[in-house]
């Protein structure tokens, strides 16, 4: 593959994707809003670009084979902020992909597109949208946009509904963990699978207590190896008993299911910032 574009390259998840993506193509264009992302890998170039600008996205995606879209606000926020970064930004990425003949968008969707479904429902990838926040609503928009651009314009997409891709620090993550190694494996499969059309897959590791069914996405060849059960004993021993009547413990969106619209859901998750350093 000649050229892959990665948006959100300065983010925590993007930091783990840069090196493996650089190894998959002749040129990796990493992009974000920061001025500098540090030392570059062989074949990697950094371009500062704004998702809210269609012109920026058109320039960024010129001659690209695929775009791995991890950019935008990664938390619940006021609607106007979500609108520009996550909704308009998604439109600009897909429209620029279409205008530049990019074959496929590999998209960091989220569990929060279906976050109000109950954990014990065991939903699959065909579950109806049930967002828990404006953030989740924007993911629903992007997934439907991806479906539309496949049906009407032939742009393939793999929408990865990412769960808890961070160090396991709370009881919910024992079921919802996505390890960095499994994240990389998932993105690689989303890129290398010959034909995807419009596809949805859950970004979750091989957890004993996973609250969703990924069976219908097996054609991607995604076979996660890590399992959060290794952390269960310690996590449960150090946590207070969970309230079964609390939607934050009932719903797969966790605390996003109860947070006030526009307020951070990440704030209560105790996420460790262990971004990969170059």
Outline the secondary-structure elements:
Layout: E1 3-7, H1 12-22, E2 27-32, E3 44-48, H2 54-60, E4 66-69, H3 79-99, E5 104-110, E6 123-124, H4 134-153, E7 156-162, H5 173-176, H6 180-192, E8 198-203, E9 212-213, H7 229-237, H8 247-250
Parallel strand pairs: 1-2, 1-4, 2-3, 4-5, 5-7, 6-9, 7-8
Helix pairs in contact: 1-6, 2-3, 3-4
Can you give a write-up of this model?
The protein has 278 residues and is of the alpha/beta class. The chain has a single domain, classed as Rossmann fold (3-Layer(aba) Sandwich). Helices cover 32% and strands 16% of the residues. It is built from 8 helices and 9 strands. It has helices at 12-22, 54-60, 79-99, 134-153, 173-176, 180-192, 229-237, 247-250, and strands at residues 3-7, 27-32, 44-48, 66-69, 104-110, 123-124, 156-162, 198-203, 212-213. The chain has a 7-stranded parallel beta sheet, with helices on both faces. It has a two-stranded parallel sheet with strand order 6-9. α1 (12-22) links the parallel β1 and β2 (27-32). α3 (79-99) packs parallel to α4 (134-153). The longest helix is centred in the first third of the chain and has 21 residues, at 79-99. The protein starts with a strand and ends in a 28-residue tail after the last helix. Belongs to the NAD(P)-dependent epimerase/dehydratase family. This is 3-beta hydroxysteroid dehydrogenase. InterPro entries: Epimerase_deHydtase, NAD(P)-bd_dom_sf.
